[in-house]
Automatic annotation (TrEMBL):
Name this polypeptide is given: SLC13 family permease
Location of this chain's protein in the cell: Membrane
Keywords: Membrane, Repeat, Transmembrane, Transmembrane helix, Transport
Membrane-traversing stretches: 7-22, 28-44, 56-75, 95-122, 134-152, 172-194, 399-430, 442-460, 472-497, 503-521, 530-549, 569-589
The keyword Transport is annotated on this UniProt entry: yes
Topology of this chain in the membrane: Multi-pass membrane protein
PROSITE patterns: RCK_C
Keyword Protein biosynthesis annotated: no
Cited Pfam families: CitMHS (PF03600), TrkA_C (PF02080)
Domain (RCK C-terminal): residue spans on this chain: 206-291, 297-384
Length: 592
């Protein structure tokens, strides 16, 4: 092993260690990896920033804008709204919702497709008196499966196409992924429809105070007013007054704060109660006992009409400005003009003040503010609306214009009329030009941390190749793979990518694994296509944990899932991907 190779391996090991550690965000880890690579001499200074001009960055950024425009159109939601009242069985709900997300994820960002249809899933569950937990996890897994079908379905496909272009002079095309991806996605749908019973049933997510969605366990905060019937009453009286449906978790009296107060504690005027319960039960208690919800400010803006003030339920998204922040630190009312009036987190009971709760991805929050401004506020905060009355279906006419632009771009790129980067950059520009997506929202839709990570890791990944490190790993793998049958070789690569992805970003996994897989194939004297496809499939299919992919994280709170719930359905789905994916890859992309 040469010194440059040793340095390349050291940078790779350090990068993976920081990814697993998780204390630094992935874009910062990639930036540090690039700087260290330049510092130790494995990336020349004049090539340090070439990754930011790579077509991958343009394609991913453009695809995010296109995805946001399609999501805004609301066409898919309109179509599902017509079907929703007719679907009563859980299996039918899984088939329609997971199938819709799978199809949509082939063309738009998978987390965007999932976010569009989460409200529809809650509405279906409420109408059919079923639990949303039975459908949300299959929808998340369907979103991952859908990305396997096209070049722009997921970032790993784009990166693998680039690596193939460097090796053979011809990158994978728009629908080169479809023969394998469609079969895996269709097989996955069968597993999801049959396997949804493996998910713990009856789990409840969270809901709005107006009970638009019938979900449990909200925590809110209320003052005992001077005229309240609870003045002089005990905690036990409060429980009886609320028919046992509300729990007082904390009583705050001046500087005194009592968690889990005793049943005989008597309440006084101006006490603050932190209460937990069903949304409708909380609403009844507050109305009957003449309590007053606390907020960051004292009163709504008196210049606004009362009927313009309302509440909306939303999920704290993966890149939300609220993640890791409390309402007090985020200065919600001063900066955004909204109040936090309730919060819920799966499996956790809060005892601290509402304004002091540190919010996390997947938390459900109820925000109060001006109804005309709330949609834009939610976008600025990075939160996803859930309540049915806040579900914006968009304009169907404009939606069809958006779909026409998307179809035109995909047709031009599929037939080689224009490069993928140009086609999707043009589609993004056209959608903004026709008003399908405001310019401000277009910039907001771009996930800059992802682009920074890609731009920074591309030179680092290339350093593994230029120093010969990938060839060295390829030789090691070839010694292992030489004793395996051809299917075992492809399966080895797919399983390796699948095993690494929960600890790395899937795009980072492909940047590292794709050159190694290509070197592995070359050392065995085989064509690289099947191995590159195996890397793309393995990196895109992370079904075992809630932390490996943003889609899985997003549904954890609303579905009431626990960490250990994912493998129940995720393990058989992962086995299916390997059992179906390996022979399909070898059939479509022969090794020799």
């Amino acid at each position: 092993m040469t010194t440059p190779q040793a340095l390349a391996f050291a940078v790779l090991a350090g990068t993976m260690g920081l990814f697993v550690w998780g204390r630094l965000r992935y874009d910062m880890v990639a930036t540090l990896a690039l700087l260290v690579s330049v510092g130790v001499g494995i990336v020349p200074p004049d090539k340090a920033f070439q990754g930011f001009s790579d077509d991958i960055v343009i394609i991913v950024g453009s695809a995010l804008v296109v995805s946001a425009a399609v999501a805004r159109s609301g066409v898919m939601e309109v179509a599902l709204q017509a079907l929703a009242p007719r679907i009563r069985s859980v299996t039918g709900q899984v088939a329609v919702l997971a199938g819709a997300v799978t199809l949509l994820s082939a063309f738009v960002k998978n987390i965007g497709a999932l976010a569009m249809l989460i409200p529809v899933a809650f509405q279906m569950a409420r109408r059919a008196n079923t639990s949303p937990s039975a459908t949300l996890m299959p929808m998340s897994f369907g979103a991952l499966l859908g990305g396997l079908m096209t070049l722009v379905g997921t970032s790993p496909n784009i990166i693998v196409a680039r690596v193939r272009g460097e090796l053979t002079g011809e990158p994978f095309g728009m629908f080169d992924f479809a023969p394998v991806g469609v079969v895996i996605a269709a097989s996955g749908m069968v597993v999801l429809m049959l396997g949804h019973r493996l998910i713990p049933q009856g789990r409840k997510g969270m809901a709005t105070l107006d009970a638009a969605l019938d979900i449990k366990d909200y925590t809110t905060e209320a003052h005992v007013t001077p005229g309240s019937v609870l003045v002089g009453a005990s905690i036990a009286d409060v429980h009886r007054f609320a028919d046992g449906e509300v729990t007082v978790t904390t009583v705050i009296r001046g500087a005194d704060r009592r968690s889990s107060p005793l049943p005989d504690m008597q309440l006084r005027e101006h006490d603050t109660l932190v209460v937990e319960g069903d949304p409708s039960a909380l609403e009844r208690l507050i109305a009957r006992a003449d309590l007053k919800l606390t907020r960051e400010d004292n009163t709504p803006d008196t210049a606004e009409a009362t009927d313009e003030i309302g509440v909306v339920e939303a999920i704290v998204g993966p890149d939300s400005a609220l993640g890791g922040q409390s309402a007090q630190r985020a200065e919600l009312f001063r900066r955004f003009g909204v109040n936090l009036i309730a919060v819920s987190r799966s499996g956790q009971r809060f005892t601290e003040r509402l304004r002091s709760i540190t919010l996390q991805t997947g938390d459900i929050v109820v925000l109060q503010g001006n109804l005309t401004r709330l949609p834009d506020t939610l976008k600025a905060l990075g939160c996803l609306p859930l309540a049915e009355r806040r579900l914006r279906l968009g304009q169907v006419r404009r939606g069809f214009v958006t779909l026409f632009i998307l179809a035109a771009a995909m047709t031009l790129t599929a037939f080689g009329v224009t490069p993928v980067a140009i086609g999707f950059f043009g589609a993004a520009a056209a959608m903004v030009a026709v008003g399908a997506l405001p310019l401000r929202d277009a910039y907001a839709a771009i996930e800059w941390p992802i682009l920074i990570m890609l731009g920074a890791l591309i030179p680092v990944s290339d350093a593994l190749r230029s120093t010969g490190a990938t060839e060295l790993v390829g030789v090691w793998l070839s010694h292992v793979g030489a004793s395996l049958p051809p299917a075992g070789m492809v399966a080895l690569v797919m399983l390796a990518a699948m095993a690494v992805t929960p600890f790395l970003n899937n795009a980072a996994t492909v940047l590292v694994m794709a050159p190694i897989a290509a070197s592995f194939a070359r050392d065995l004297g085989l064509r690289p296509d099947a191995f590159l496809m195996a890397v793309a499939i393995g990196a895109a299919c992370d079904f075992l944990t809630p932390i490996g992919h943003q889609c899985n994280t997003l549904v954890m709170g609303p579905g009431g899932y626990r960490f250990g719930d994912y493998w129940r359905l995720g393990l058989p789905l992962s086995l299916m991907v390997v059992l179906v994916g390996v022979p399909m890859v070898m059939l479509v992309w022969p090794l020799r």
